[in-house]
Amino acid sequence: MTTITNSSLVLISCKSVVPSNTTIGFHAESTCGRGTASIIWNCLTVMIFAVWSTIHLSTRTLHSPLWYKSLLQTGTYYFWSPWRRLLRKEADDYMSDVEFPNFTSRKILEAVITVLFPETGVVVAVEEVIVAWYIRRATSKVEGWESFSLKQAHLIAMGGILVPGLEATQDFDQLVLRRKMSFAIFPTHAQISRRAKKDYTDKAIALFQGVYFIGNCWMRYRHKYRLARLEFIALNYLIYAVLVSALRYSKPQELQDPFQSKWSHEGTDIDYLGGSGEGRGGVADLNSPFYIWYTRKRWHIFALILLALGTAGVLNFCYRIGPTHETQSLLWRITFLGIVCISCLPLRQIAHERNALRAEKPGLLDRVADVYVGMCCLGYVALRLYLLVGAFLRFRVATADVYVTAPSWTQYLGHVGG
């Protein structure tokens, strides 16, 4: 005679009530909290905190020598513009300091855009590292500035120090060389850390949520329970959060008050040495870091492509364990579109650099590159919104085992509070 334990009865009854081949749509909260509302709440909190904890705002909204950061700044401006008119805020320059009412509002607006389009946070972080690395590399070649670090370069790139006569952050080394500035009076790491705010609370909450959420999903996968599409998207955000945190490790998180430089205001004019072939080695080093990265440092192209493919591979693995191949196909389209957008950026940048060097009007290559980039961006926006909206609509035809909970909290981590 075969004996059946209580736990086996519970498990059998649980499986029989909600078989995996049926759909039940929206599901009310159960005792264990595994319903539609709990899934949406958990996923949204993970996504929002993952984005919020990785945002490192610049002290001032400076014009970037590259493209993606300027695009994000323009997007936040147009998002804020109707509210500014409602509040009767006036600004002569849309990139001025009075563009937003305060530092927190800027962070909220950037978080909204990054939550909707998480890839923007990654490419902006990559751009910030490129500009800061370029400033550090060029400045460390000046005599007396050999110990100039990446964190101090971020301070220049983010407008964290007011330097008289510096119009473009990527020209800081030329200004140092021209005016023979002393490195001894530049803010040290300790001074920067004391003034910059560190949101350890936000990062701790995001870390706990991320680890718990990953454990939740892994336990469900091990017990052959299905994951909702929104949960896969939340895993996508966690992967991006880890990547952005690594890229912005050296950048001060919240430095609201810039340092006042102690250098004199005399000799604020800068002679651009690139055109004469002195100092930087020719016209190829004019202004744009991307011009150097994609013409002289070919291996950076492969590094960027490998980074994108690596991210796509991890996300593809997450979607492969999902219920359908439809989501996996959508993910591959979005990832491929992001790779195309990143890859076509040097084409646009180099075309603008050459026309600026020759003092010419935008040519055919400029117009083709602009249209191409614009079409890619519009396609990306449409696909990303379609994926996000589709994840919520998917709950209308959700499979029953999405809501199944384990018979005992000792067998399933996510059983505790959903």
UniProtKB/TrEMBL annotation:
The chain crosses the membrane at residues 39-59, 230-249, 299-318, 330-351, 371-393. Keywords: Membrane, Transmembrane, Transmembrane helix. PANTHER family: TRANSCRIPTION FACTOR DOMAIN-CONTAINING PROTEIN. This is Uncharacterized protein. It comes from Cucurbitaria berberidis CBS 394.84.
